[in-house]
Write a structure and sequence with these properties.
Distance between the termini: 12 Å
Order of helices and strands: EEEHEHHEHEEEEHHEEEHEHHEHEE
Number of strands: 16
Strand content: 25-35%
Number of domains: 2
Helix content: 10-25%
Strand order of the largest sheet: 6-5-4-3-2-1-16
CATH superfamily of the largest domain: Ribonuclease Z/Hydroxyacylglutathione hydrolase-like
CATH topology of the largest domain: Metallo-beta-lactamase, Chain A
Shape: globular
CATH class of the largest domain: Alpha Beta
Oligomer: single chain
Mean pLDDT: 93
Largest sheet: 7 strands, mixed
Radius of gyration: 21 Å
CATH architecture of the largest domain: 4-Layer Sandwich
Length: 308
């Protein structure tokens, strides 16, 4: 099971109703954070998930509404007693941004590893993959006014143990559990592999996150078959199209078109404009295209179970 919490759903600047866009994902007791706007610690505290077990922070880009909460969060994680390394992922410029934001937090009790994905040549961008704790993090450059990445988190599911296959392959019972856990064993001159006791691949869970971009041709493929697709809807009104193009953001309807083309299960709209005081009024613009569309709200939560 994967737990997903949209800590904040606002874009550009925080408002009394909306914190800045940030997503926290929890799996097997470990956590991944995407974007880190100012004040997101408040939502983290309110949902009670803790700080110590955040292993990865992914930045879509380095505009202030997405990164200004990092310094305080790193210090809070330090105060939680963390000693294990923490990884930060982002597009070009990560090292400079991290150096600037940590001027007032120069000493941390844990190592911070920086993983910078090169987005300079988008047309020839090779798939960027980072794996941690059985979670595969994929990144895709998108179309904003600065280097920007969309992310997909893929939670793999272990193959089911197949006792009939183990018996057919003459695997000693004392090795079944060892092989099931992915180990290779040599016994009495014979090598036993996990494939000798495991069944077919099983569908995992996919959560995709995209914000601050115009629609791109690669996005539907990148987020395809997501159990949950969280996408920016900066503007609800279709007549804001020219403004969306100018600022390289999306309309509700454009996010819904991507969700439909990608055959995702569910769409959450986030990064709502501060001027969008009544987003419910425009939700129909998305629902008419992709039915299972929902507005993001601060601390919106969902548990996603593996499908049988």
């Amino acid at each position: 099971m994967v737990d997903v919490c949209l800590l904040g759903c606002g874009g550009s600047l925080p408002t009394p109703e909306r914190g800045l866009t940030s997503l926290l994902v929890s799996y097997n007791g470990r956590k991944i954070l995407i974007d880190c706007g100012e004040g997101n610690q408040v939502s983290m505290k309110m949902v009670g998930w803790g700080f110590k077990n955040i292993d990865v922070i992914c930045f879509t880009h380095y505009h202030a509404d997405h990164v200004m909460g990092l310094t305080g969060l790193l210090l809070t994680i330090a105060n939680s007693g963390r000693e294990l390394p923490l990884t930060i992922i982002g597009p070009n410029g990560l090292k400079e941004v991290f150096s600037g934001l940590t001027v007032i937090a120069p000493i941390l009790p844990y190592e911070v590893k920086l993983v910078e994905f090169d987005c300079i040549d988008n047309d020839n961008f090779e798939d960027k993959v980072f794996t941690i704790n059985d979670v595969i993090i994929n990144a895709l450059p998108v179309n904003h006014s600065t280097y920007c990445l969309a992310y997909s988190l893929n939670f793999n599911r272990k193959k089911r143990f197949n006792p009939e296959k183990a018996i057919e392959n003459n695997v000693p019972k004392k090795l079944w559990s060892v092989l099931q856990n992915g180990n290779i064993v040599s016994l009495e001159g014979k090598t036993y592999t996990p494939e000798m006791v495991l069944g077919q691949d099983r569908r995992g869970i996919k959560v995709s996150y995209c914000t601050d971009t115009r629609p791109t041709g690669k996005l539907p493929i990148f987020v395809s078959e997501s159990d949950l697709f969280i996408c920016e809807g900066m503007y609800g009104e279709d007549d804001k199209y020219n403004k969306a193009v100018e600022n390289r953001h999306m309309l509700f309807s454009e996010a819904a078109q991507i969700a439909k083309a990608a055959n995702v299960d569910e769409l959450w709209l986030t990064h709502l404009s501060p001027s969008l005081s009544d987003p419910e009024r425009y939700l129909e613009n998305a629902v008419n295209i992709f039915k299972n569309t929902h507005l993001g709200i601060d601390r919106k939560f969902k548990s996603i179970n593996f499908k049988t």
